[in-house]
Amino acid sequence: MTRAPIFGLMAEFESPTELALAARKAYDEGYRKMDAYSPFPIEEVSEAIGFGHSRVPLVVLVGGLLGGAGGYLMQYWISALNYPINVGGRPLNSWPAFIVVTFEMTILGAALFAVFGMLALNRLPMPYHPTFNVGRFAFASKDRFFLCIEAADPRFDRDGTEGFLQSLGPKQVSEVPH
Amino acid sequence: MAEDPTVEVTRTTRAPVLAPGHTFATVTDKISAIVLSRRTTIGWMLGFGVGLTFTMVFLLAVSYLVVKGVGIWGINIPVAWGFAIVNFVWWIGIGHAGTLISAILLLLNQPWRNSINRFAEAMTLFAVMCAGMFPLLHLGRPWLFYWLFPYPNTMQVWPQFRSPLVWDVFAVSTYFTVSLMFWFVGLIPDLGTLRDRAHSRFARATYGFLAMGWRGSARHWKNYESAYLLLAGLATPLVVSVHTVVSFDFAISILPGWHTTIFPPYFVAGAIYSGFAMVLVIAIPIRKYYGLGDMITMRHLDNSAKIMLVTGLIVAYGYFIETFMAWYRHNDFDFFMIQNRMHGPYAPLYLALMLCNVAAPQVLWFRRVRQNVGALFAISIVVLVGMWLERFIIVVTSLHRDFLTSSWGMYYPTRWDWLTFWGSVGFFTMAMYLFIRFLPMISIFEMRTLLPEAEVEAGAK
């Protein structure tokens, strides 16, 4: 008898320490396509599942540079090229006066890239995700900690992986339907 | 890792940041229940009603302004900057404490901020909204406010980028945008919590829509924390720059009383001073009426009072330097300006300013006063009044008697000035009431990290 394909298997834990240990063991076991879910950020867990590096800082740097360069060039173009006003022979590209707006545009560019970059890297908004099919997953935003090994992982084997997750001492293991 | 707050509690006798006995579940339940299951109380309805009434007053005053023009206010030459600019600087200063709490204290690794940052950020947003309205109304033709921005137009003209007034447009609009994003990013995980715990279909759909599918994934948290920290790092220089640019509006001019280099630091300190006063004015009733004394503890009130005292002393130093420089500079106009402040027609307001901003907060040196909730509330109100008076003194006494005696004049606010001001206070009150009712006023996920069990034990690291 063939069973309907599933998204993965999810184990529920009661403390951040249990989750961090379980994630580390799963990584050592060779699982890579997995994710951990917790009600607050836990540095050790994201390291344990092998997600040590965020690309957000690079995105923010690009945003800041674009904002700053764009801010200065806008003022230069407007004040020196498109609408030059000669006031007593003073320089048109009066850069000290342009610093404030350049600074504000740097911050604005970096902040916009930080927020929208973070959302894009996280693939949010995402109204549907298979993990929400597990009834108890609602506690992931309260006081429970989950580790989900996805079926797309090459080492995933429905019975074998379930046995492995059970060996980690979870509160329970559930299937995550698509 | 952040320092475990409980360690500090055992080391000193200070009140804890979070009262003992809480777990992940109780923290979540307590804060989300205020929004989800608690019934709307009569007290809330009354407070909201007062706010709504004054918002209507504000709309009335603005409508009349649109019909008649700024002549309904007391402004004229020489005092063309009246209440509108006083209120603008006052409101935007109040906003600054929210950013200080949420961004600077985050960077300085002060975990006690976690229970007050959310509503302080909301306070920032609403205060900046109130602030932003005043210069727009002061434009004369507020419906043409978009002329302030550089956009390609058929008139073929652009803003003057060498003017501090244009810098201000960029500073304040950037500040509002960044504050809004910072606040919303902080809310996303809590909106997920509300979505998972809401009973009614409508509430679940609304919070779910706003949470955008947040599921607390470890990868998401990693990017999230990175973005949140960077936003804090960006908001920190931003908040300092905003009030600096506001002070440039004055300091770049050549008017005695405005043209001074002490303005930027003195304005920023004053902003934080009034902002923390407003934080206390909001926090004290909230913790009483919602029973949040275990989350907003005496430690928070004590720390806020200390920051008020420090910034108050910086402001006092600013007043001293202003007076000293007027004498030291040996400039007749400068010297006259300060004499006119102290002995001229607005002298009673100057005296009141000194009592409110310099004398009154000195009682905060005493621990007994800082532990007395009622006294803190009263002093905060006094400081808010004092900071409003400070802006009034700076704007009006400098303008009304400048270089030429023939162009001297007096400024008296009209009833429309007062109605607009109190209307903006009403809008702020209404917005805070709505926020408290519909969104978690304390950051739930950051409160969870304050619990000792949030730490991963040494063996698992």
Describe this structure in words.
Chain A is α+β, with helices and mostly antiparallel strands and 178 residues long. Helices cover 47% and strands 13% of the residues of chain A. Chain A is built from five helices and four strands; from the N terminus they run βαβαααβαβ. Chain A has helices spanning 16-29, 43-48, 56-82, 95-121, 158-167, and strands at 6-13, 34-37, 145-150, 172-177. Chain A has a four-stranded antiparallel beta sheet, covered by helices on one side. In chain A, helix 3 runs antiparallel to helix 4 (95-121). The model of chain A has no long low-confidence stretch (mean pLDDT 93). In chain B, helix 12 runs antiparallel to helix 14. Chain B is globular, with a radius of gyration of 23 Å. The chains are: A alpha+beta (178), B mainly alpha (461). At the A-B interface, helix 1, strand 2, helix 2, helix 3 and helix 4 of A face helix 2, helix 6, helix 8 and helix 16 of B.
Strand content of chain A: 5-15%
Helix/strand/pairing category of chain B: mainly alpha
**Secondary-structure element string of chain A:** EHEHHHEHE
Described by its quaternary structure, the protein is heterodimer
Q: H/E order of the elements of chain B?
A: HHHHHHHHHHHHHHHH
Average residue-wise pLDDT of chain A? 93
Question: How far is the first residue's CA from the last residue's CA of chain B?
Answer: 11 Å
Q: Overall 3D geometry of chain A?
A: elongated
**How many individual helices of chain B?**
16
